[in-house]
Amino acid sequence: MKIIKDSVHDHIRVDGVARDLLDTPALQRLRHISQLGTVSLVYPSANHTRFEHSLGVYHLACEALEYLSIEGARAERVRAAAILHDVGHGPFSHSLESLTHRRTGRYHDDVHELLADGPVGDVLRDHDIEPATVADLIAGDGRFGQLVSGELDVDRMDYLVRDAHHTGVPYGTIDHGRLVRELTFVDGELVLAEGNVQTAESLLVARALMNPTVYSHSVARISKAMLRRAGERLLEEPSADVDANALQRMDDHDLVVALRSCEATAELSRRLDQRDLFKRAVWAEIDDVPGGIIEADHESIREFEREIAERASIAPAHVILDVPSRPSMTESTTRVMVNGEIRRLGQQSPLVEALRAAQYSQWRLGVYSPPALRDRVGRAAVDVLDLAIDGALVSEVRDGIDATLDQFID
Questions:
Q1: Measured between alpha carbons, how far is 138 from 112 in angstroms, rounded to an integer?
Q2: Phi-psi region for residue 377, left (φ > 0), alpha (ψ -120 to 50) or beta?
Q3: Whole-structure pTM over 0.85, yes or no?
Q4: Burial of 390 (0-12, 13-18, 19+ CB in 10 A)
Q5: Three-state DSSP class for 186?
Q6: What is the C-alpha to C-alpha distance for residues 208 and 330, in angstroms, rounded to an integer?
Q7: Domain limits of the chain?
């Protein structure tokens, strides 16, 4: 048994299969992958890693299993899945997933493959655990997979509290102790027990508040977009000799070195290293953006960027178009017991529609460029994208938003 002091859960006791997995290369690699990608450029203390998050998920899984009275081999499989759930993540967490998905068809490295061979597979088999079964649990399959990956998973419970703690933003603080205690299975579905509608709402509200404040903060989005563009150029550069599969298995440090060493990515790498970031040339609300742009695929986005650059008479490398997916709220499907029947939170809580409306109002399309070019780029983007805003007012509106945000954080 090993006891680890954690910044969020205090002391975490690690034993059994999890203790033997702790020092495998696949798990130790997570020490070098930041939990929040480039968010530390906004919140300097947000330097926590996927490794400590994995420990937190394991800890909450252990508590949930205890309250659910699940023991023996089934519990050990869930504990293994909990501590291993992030081993497939690439560098800077979610930042490059869309890039690698276009080339490999996967958002993460193949967890089934990672767990089957090498030290992780050896440890699992030493404990009479089939690696494929653990990989299925990580994917959320089956009754107990819901604990690891689902609407009420311990992954979400840990990352909200941990991200709030390390950013200093209090909105993600939830009563994870009660959430874990009130979990139960009804007809094979993981639900919150009777009388916990407000408990489920707290999870929903926390995620809704953390999204614009942390996960989709404008600086985090700009730096993430720049990192994606650098990663794309790295994969397109023959001399770099890096493919999407190799990129998925890098850690943050590997990627930074690769970007610094490649001539095609050196300038973007320098900007990220020195926080010399692009600025918002356009920051448009969803009602001002034609639907065809929101639904556009990657190649169409790149063509829009080229057209904007041509209209502004600048190099295409100086334009990044950042189009988020339409707002969604996975947590609204959380299941709660109400008057003896299972109900979706979205059907039960009046908060859900209000939070959906808030998400809708917070959605922004971004066009980014070097500071000296953003007025030209902004006007060109309004014309090319046919945005329902006055190009002459882009600079004034954007500067007003910047001034307001600067009252709170850079």
A1: 9
A2: alpha
A3: yes
A4: exposed
A5: strand
A6: 11
A7: 2-168, 278-326+363-410
How many Cα atoms are found within 13 Å in the side-chain-facing hemisphere of 317?
Answer: 8
Label residue 407 by pLDDT band (50, 70, 90): very low
CATH numeric code, 278-326+363-410:
3.30.70
Per CATH, 2-168 and 278-326+363-410 having the same topology is answered no
CA atoms of 182 and 160, how far apart (whole Å): 18
Dump pLDDT digits (tens) for 355-402. 999 999 999 999 999 999 999 999 999 999 999 887 555 655 555 555
Listed in sequence order, the DSSP H helices in 237-326 are: 244-248, 252-261, 266-273, 291-294, 298-312
b/e map of 181-192 (b: 16 or more CB within 10 Å)? bbbeeeeeebbb
CATH number for the domain formed by residue range(s) 2-168: 1.10.3210.10
260-265 contacts at long range (C-beta below 8 A, 24 or more positions apart): 262/233, 262/234, 262/237, 263/237, 263/239, 264/233, 264/234, 264/236, 264/237, 264/240, 265/230, 265/233, 265/234, 265/237, 265/240
Q: What is the residue type of 47?
A: N
**pLDDT given at position 393:** 54
**Residues 116, 188: Cα–Cα separation, whole Å:** 28
* DSSP class per residue in 232-245: HHHHH-GGG---HH
Are 319 and 309 contacting, i.e. CB atoms less than 8 angstroms apart? Answer: yes
Here the tokens at position 343 are 């109900």
Q: Which pLDDT score is estimated for 51?
A: 98
- If you ran DSSP here, which 8-state letter would residue 326 be given? P
For residues 113 and 77, the answer to whether their CB atoms sit within 8 Å is no
Which residues, in sequence order, are bridge partners of residue 227? Answer: none
Note the pLDDT tens digit of each residue in 6-46.
999 999 999 999 999 999 999 999 999 999 999 999 999 99
- Give the gyration radius of the chain's Cα atoms: 22
Residues above pLDDT 70, as percent of the chain: 95
Question: In the chain, what percentage of residues exceed pLDDT 90?
Answer: 80
